[in-house]
Design a protein that fits this description.
Elements lengths: L11 E6 L6 E8 L5 E6 L4 H4 L2 E7 L2 E10 L2 H12 L4 H4 L5 E8 L5 E16 L10 E10 L1 E6 L5
Antiparallel strand pairs: 1-2, 1-6, 2-5, 3-4, 5-8, 6-7, 7-8, 7-9
């Protein structure tokens, strides 16, 4: 395969980090990898001649949807349930337990080509699966998260 050949967008992995643990969960669809700022239009005394200015303000919350996920071991299931349930106790604890989530696009060998890191993410919605008797995996129909920021990291090609 040539090094400049376009990478397939279906070969990626999702890892959730909390500082000590980092389970990887497979999802068949990830949407919302965008970064956007709120802006303010500033008109000053010479705007009639020089035009107005657009000033970027704070970053909008990043809303990411992870769809059709498969969890194949009990530890990852428990990790995800504990993280989601921690949202209920934030008033008692006085803070929200955030996680960093990395979505990595991989080449055919499983090496990361580009990674998107959602920083300070919290879960906002979890939709369970349709129950099918022939399936043995624990599935997630959709997990929606909200993050504070989004970073993109490109890995250098290995020769």
């Amino acid at each position: 395969m040539a090094s400049n050949y376009p990478a397939s967008s279906y070969n990626y992995r999702v890892s959730i980090f909390d500082g000590s643990n980092s389970p990887t969960i497979s999802f068949s669809e990830v949407t919302g990898l965008s970064r956007e700022y709120n802006t303010v239009t500033y008109r000053h005394g010479l705007s009639f001649a020089l035009g107005y200015m657009m000033i970027p303000m704070e970053i909008k919350p990043i809303k990411i949807s992870l769809k059709r996920g498969i969890i194949v071991n009990h530890e990852n299931t428990q990790y995800l349930v504990e993280w989601f349930n921690s949202m209920e106790s934030w008033q008692r604890l006085g803070f929200v337990q955030t996680r960093d989530i990395t979505i990595s696009l991989c080449d055919g060998l499983g090496n990361s080509i580009v990674s998107w890191k959602a920083i300070g993410a919290i879960p906002s919605k979890l939709i369970g699966p349709d129950f099918v008797a022939s399936s043995q995996n624990v599935a997630i129909e959709s997990l929606d998260i909200i993050a504070k920021d989004l970073e993109i990291e490109f890995q250098s090609p290995s020769n």
